[in-house]
Amino acid sequence: MRLHRVLPFAKRLLAETVVAGETVVDATAGNGNDTVFLAELIGEEGKVFAFDIQQAALRATKERLAGLANRVDLVLDSHAHVDRYVQKPIGGAMFNLGYLPYSDDPTIITKPESTIEAIHKLLALLKKGGIITVSVYDGHEGGPQERDALLQYVKTLRQADVHVIRYELLNQRNNPPFLIAIEKVREFDEVILMEN
Questions:
Q1: In this structure, how many other beta carbons lie within 10 angstroms of the beta carbon of residue 128?
Q2: Residue 1 located in a structural domain
Q3: Are strands 72-76 and 90-96 parallel, antiparallel or unpaired?
Q4: What global pTM score does this model have?
Q5: Which GO terms describe its molecular function (predicted)?
Q6: Is residue 194 one of the residues assigned to a domain?
Q7: Is 179:135 a contact under the CB 8 Å cutoff?
Q8: pLDDT score of 5
Q9: What stretch of H or E contains 69?
Q10: 140 within domain boundaries
Q11: Which residues make Cβ contacts (< 8 Å) with residue 87, sequence separation at least 6?
Q12: 8 Cβ contact list (under 8 Å, min separation 6)
């Protein structure tokens, strides 16, 4: 085994748990890289729901999908509303927090409230053994607040329900991303948080 950077490691985790034909979620479509990866992973019978609040992100994702577009529902809405669009079990989900790369407006960023709400709802939909990956970028304005709120939230998830890891390369410069991965270890349809 070799050490991976954050994004390849997130993909590796999902490739080991998602099965062809499943439903999966790209909670932050961005420029479409994760959406394409997930669309390839789930095969012709599966479905990807890709969320973004920016039309430009969904346009970029659609262009990148090419022949995989029939496997993907592009949703112009906050990932916090995932339960309005996805009602059946999912095999996994991916988040890339921060702002849309190469955007005209880098002040449009993911927010802690919507990110945590989305994770909370996705955990209820996630299959046993499924994984949610969250790539955390905190080197921009608002990033540290989202990072801290997210870390506080995942620490309150019951260990009987989920396992949570933090994966990062410690000798990288300039605020490198780190990964939070959440694995569902038993069936439940309602997330109960531990008391502080």
A1: 11
A2: no
A3: unpaired
A4: 0.93
A5: methyltransferase activity
A6: no
A7: yes
A8: 85
A9: none
A10: yes
A11: 125
A12: none
Query: CA dihedral defined by 147, 149, 153, 155, rounded to 10 degrees?
Result: 60
Residues 28-69 have pLDDT tens digits of 999 999 999 999 999 999 999 999 999 999 999 999 999 999
Residue 25 has pLDDT above 90, yes or no: yes
Instruction: Look at residue 192 and tell me if it is in a domain.
Output: no
pLDDT value of residue 147: 87
* Owner of token pair 């994770």: 119
Question: Given CA atoms 49, 53, 55, 60 in this order, what sign does their dihedral have?
Answer: negative
Q: What is the DSSP letter of 23?
A: E
How many structural domains comprise the chain? 1
Q: What pLDDT digit, counting tens, does each position of 87-124 carry? A: 999 999 999 988 767 666 777 778 889 999 999 999 99
CATH of the domain at 177: 3.40.50.150
> Residue length, the chain?
196
| Domain assignment of residue 62, given as a range | 6-184
